[in-house]
Every structure is written in structure tokens, then in C-alpha cells.
């Protein structure tokens, strides 16, 4: 068993790693997944971290009970420096039970209890029942985009509004509040904004959701949040502030990843016209196309950030207790031992074994909803706009380099 306890952080490779091609994972991932599946790197904060890169070991570490997803653990591998004033720290402490990062950033029985409240709302059956409304939302947004005319900017005109409207409708957010939430949640996940802006957006979202949850507690309607509130009364899992945190988590996670996948998936299909032609000729390929696009882009890279609570041996390497660990979805999903010629986009590939939604107990709760939204989006977008094209070189677009959710800031299109 090897270890690297005495490695100088200055000698370690930097993480996140740069992408040579914006549509591919970093080139270093290929060597990591096959030659160094457990290795060390250094975060922008200067803190060392363990990287897990092979498909097999990513699955193993994400199911290991000796790692924690607690973001408030001193060893947790935050990618960005957490610089706060004393006032901001006091405000965060005051709202700590409702901080979005704590909604599911817990472990063991506590995490299982929270999932029991939420998972029944995102089963395959419940999600499929919502398909007609998702189709209506996609068509409505496309109607608005086409009415405004060509050219357009795909992220703001389509990729963001679709999942935002879907999750707001599922959570029964009042129509008058939906743009308010979209504006602030966009700020919260945009790493180009300041710490102060993100903190204020977080406070605004929690305050608005506080009122929404109080209304549900007074009169639980037969909707997602109302049923979660009623279920919580029966199970006694969370207090009011924690329910607010769960609602905020669902609101943000319900649109951010999907919006970025809509944009990146559109780029991927337009850059691979043969694959796009297969999809348009055979709409039945939509499901496998979505899984292949999820595998190919792995926008949720890392698949999971954790901290070791005990010494762990993984792939013949010892990870000491207290060290941060990052599971690389982008490397695992391009592991040639699992996916033949992973650099090739092939919508007929059987890619369901990808780890784009994570793995284990912390696997994405909304994976069925995300898959369905993407199926409807890609099945509708290119049918209605067969002449859709990107009006700038793909390499010249602004990508979300270093963000927890990879994507693109703007996609100028015409048709």
C-alpha cells in the first residue's frame, strides 16, 4: 500500500484541470483513469486533495461509509476560497440550519431520513405523469424564443427558462415569484459574482422560501412541498428551517445542472451532425441519446466531494482520515475499460452505467426528472428548429471553467 503523506503541495498538479477542448474533459483524465486512479492534486485554496478517477473506484468511494459529505467538516475539499466578513459569518451562522449546502450534506441515518421525505416525489411514475406538462413548457418557451426571432441566445432564451419553469411548477412557486427565484439562484451558482452577491442571493432565496413553507405548513396543498411538509409531520425528521433548506436545494439543483446539459448537449449534437441526424430520424433514440450526452459531458464533475472520516485504502493507496476526496465523473465516464472509444459521441451506445448523477446514497434525487426534461428538450428543439446553428466558433464561447457544474455562459444561435 502506498501513500503520499509528505508530498509538497507545490509539487502537485492543480485542480481543477484545464480543458484543451471545451467539449471534452481535461486531457489528464485519460491517464488518471487508467494509470493513476487514486492521486493527489492541489486546490485553488492551496489545500491538497485526493482525486479518484477510474469508474470502478469512483463507485467504490461514493459508497464507502468512511467518507462524509459534510461541507462544514474542516477537511472538506471546497474548490473556492471561502472569504467572508465577520458580519457575513454571523449571518451564515444564524441561518446555519437552513443553509442550502446542509440540505443533503449529511450522512447515514440523518441523510436517509431526509431522502425518505423527498424521494417519493421524484419516482419514475410521478415524473412520467408530469411529461405532458413538461412538453407544454418546452413548447411555450420555444414559442417565445421563435416569436422574438432569429438570432437568439440559447442559454437565456431556452436552456435556463425550461428547467426553471419545470421546478417552479413542481414546487408550486407562485407565478409572481418565479423570476425573483431565477434571478437569485442564477447569482448563487455563478462563480463570477462576488461572495457578497452570492451571500445576499442566498439570504433572499431562503427568506422568500420561508414564507412559502409557512404557508404550506398552515395549509399543506397536494403538491410536492405540501406532501413533503405532511410527510415530515408524520416522520418528524426536520424542523421548519431545515425544510426551507431542502426546498432551496430542490429549487437550485432542479434547474442548474439541466440548464447546462441543455446547452452543452445542443452544442454536442450540432458538432456531430451524423448523431443529430440519427436522433431526428429515430426519436426512439432520445433516451439513449440523453444518457450518452450525460456521459460525454459529465457537467456535474466532480461526481462527489467528500472527506475521509477514517483511514481508507483505495486502489492500493492509503487516504488518511481528515483528507478531502474528489470523485471525478469526467474521468470515470471516459474510462476506456468501461466505455469503448469514450471520446466518440455515439447516441446508440449503451451508456446507462455512466456516473453523471453520482452513485450510492447521495445519487441525484432528481435524475428521473432531469432525464425526462432532456428527452423532451432534444426531441422537440431539433424537430421544431431543424435549421438551428451556432453562430460563433465553439472554441470561442465562454465556458464555466472551474465551476462545480460545467457549462457555457452564452450560446448565440440562429435558424
UniProtKB/TrEMBL annotation:
Q: Which GO terms describe its molecular function?
A: heme binding; iron ion binding; monooxygenase activity; oxidoreductase activity, acting on paired donors, with incorporation or reduction of molecular oxygen
**PROSITE patterns in UniProt:** CYTOCHROME_P450
Name the domain of life: Bacteria
Pathway noted in the entry: Antibiotic biosynthesis; vancomycin biosynthesis
Q: Which UniProt keywords apply?
A: Heme, Iron, Metal-binding, Monooxygenase, Oxidoreductase
Tell me yes or no: is Plastid among this UniProt entry's keywords: no
Q: Which InterPro entries match?
A: Cyt_P450 (IPR001128), Cyt_P450_B (IPR002397), Cyt_P450_CS (IPR017972), Cyt_P450_sf (IPR036396)
Function according to Swiss-Prot or TrEMBL: Involved in the coupling of aromatic side chains of the heptapeptide of vancomycin.
Q: Which PANTHER family match?
A: CYTOCHROME P450 YJIB-RELATED, P450, PUTATIVE (EUROFUNG)-RELATED
The record's similarity note reads:
Belongs to the cytochrome P450 family.
What is the name of the protein in this document? Answer: Cytochrome P450
